[in-house]
Write a structure and sequence with these properties.
It contains 16 helices and no strands. 83% of the residues lie in helices and 0% in strands. The protein is mainly α. The chain is globular. It has one domain. Helix 3 packs parallel to helix 8, helix 3 runs parallel beside helix 11 and helix 6 runs parallel beside helix 8.
Length: 423
């Protein structure tokens, strides 16, 4: 049975990435009950607020050209896309540093308890995560899944041990911030070390003219996908923005902790499936192979994997959080219980979400995303301004986003059958 499973290159690659992801997520989950007793909800709330600023900048740090690295048929073309993405990431990081210097006295807009010195984490995080995104797609193109697994494990170990050490020293939110930062930096160094040979081998193909040509050929990414990505970032971080405005950082902390725990088991397998799926979908598309069977198989696999986790959270969410993380985190378990259907459906959507990029249907998806964001804003505004009840806002959020995601899954499935224009 196992030999038959491993005969599939898709399954073999997923298993390679899954091994690294499993170890990485297991480390974080293992120490989470300790961290939840070393840090308070307010600490996680402040961390979530900072990362909500970092995330949208990171997403557009290379103008989305990093996603195009997987697509060209020739490595000599892809290496110029990598060079372009790296240059743009450095440029964006520098811009974010200038922004921090200019606006570092305006933190009262973010949160009353937010310190201006924390803003200097932003450019370093943008640089380290942005460079990782570029190299991650390069490794995915070359199927260097052991290298990508090494990144995840080293990131997780460094993040976990650093957060633990700083927590024992009672450093508060700074401990969590340094944990995230050090994890990203060490993981990035590991990835650079393992992929540098493949980059050096092809670097002689890089030239200013070829970089310009690559930027022109894949201009759809900054023109359409950057807007789409910013819209997606708002979906992820918009909840934090509104919660920080309407509610205190403790509630934000409960929410961010709940999402972190909810996404850990989902990301455990989902990220590995998504990465291999994108590479295989790009390859099949270039070879004029219908993508619908691959999409269908991935949807079914994701649903079967996520369903048991969904049921556990729906039935045992609050008492499970209280038992594992401490009674102070029971409320986070309530939030997890309410939000779990949304996270489950998003887990199914996530691996196949790159299909619009592969088949060049990004503009249509952007329109759908605007509708989703409108629903998100309305749900949070009603919950925060009128009902003044965060749980009610979460119920509205889960219902609206679940309906949207089901529509998107169906749309992607149908579009994956049709012939589309290649880049």
């Amino acid at each position: 049975m196992l030999k038959k499973y491993l005969k599939s290159e898709f399954n073999k690659n997923v298993l390679t990435l899954l091994t690294g992801t499993t170890i990485a997520q297991f480390i974080l989950l293992l120490i989470s009950p300790i961290l939840s007793r070393l840090y308070i909800a307010d600490d996680y709330g402040q961390l979530a607020t900072l990362m909500a600023i970092v995330s949208p900048i990171v997403i557009v740090s290379s103008f989305r050209y990093e996603l195009a690295i997987v697509l060209p048929e020739k490595d000599s073309s892809a290496i110029n896309l990598l060079a372009l993405a790296l240059i743009l990431t450095l440029f964006t990081s520098l811009l974010s540093l200038i922004g921090v210097i200019i606006f570092n006295q305006s933190t009262h807009i973010i949160s009353n308890n937010f310190k201006s010195s924390w803003l200097y984490f932003i450019p370093v995080l943008v640089l380290s995560i942005g460079l990782y995104q570029c190299l991650n797609n390069w490794g995915n193109r070359l199927k260097k899944y052991k290298s990508l697994s090494a990144y995840r494990i080293s990131n997780s170990i460094t993040n976990g041990t650093s957060s633990l050490a700083f927590g024992i020293l009672k450093t508060g939110v700074l401990g969590l911030l340094f944990g995230v930062l050090l994890g990203n930096i060490i993981g990035l160094l590991v990835l650079i070390f393992t992929l540098l040979g493949s980059i050096n081998k092809l670097w002689h193909h890089v030239s200013y003219q070829k970089i310009k040509l690559a930027a022109r050929d894949y201009k759809i990414f900054p023109l359409a996908n950057s807007i789409q990505a910013t819209s997606d970032a708002f979906q992820i971080n918009g909840v934090i923005y509104f919660m920080s405005y309407f509610f205190n950082s403790t509630i934000v902390g409960w929410y961010s902790f709940a999402i972190r725990i909810l996404q850990a088991p989902m990301n455990l397998i989902g990220a590995a499936i998504a990465q291999v799926f994108y590479q295989q979908a790009s390859s099949e598309f270039n070879n004029k192979i219908c993508l619908q069977p691959l999409v269908k198989k991935t949807i079914i696999k994701s649903a079967l994997i996520g369903l048991p986790i969904l049921l556990i959270l729906l039935i045992f969410g609050p008492p499970l959080f209280a038992f594992v993380f401490g009674e102070n985190w029971r409320e986070a378990g309530v939030y997890a219980q309410i939000l779990s259907p949304w996270i489950f459906l998003d887990f199914i959507r996530s691996p196949i979400s790159q299909i619009p990029i592969v088949i060049n249907k990004q503009k249509k998806l952007l329109l759908f995303s605007i509708v989703s964001n409108t629903l998100l804003v309305l749900a949070l505004l009603y919950g925060g301004m009128i009902a003044k009840d965060i749980k009610f806002a979460f119920y509205l959020l889960t219902i609206s986003q679940s309906l949207y995601i089901m529509f998107i899954i169906n749309w992607i499935y149908k579009k994956s059958k049709k012939d589309v224009v290649h880049y």
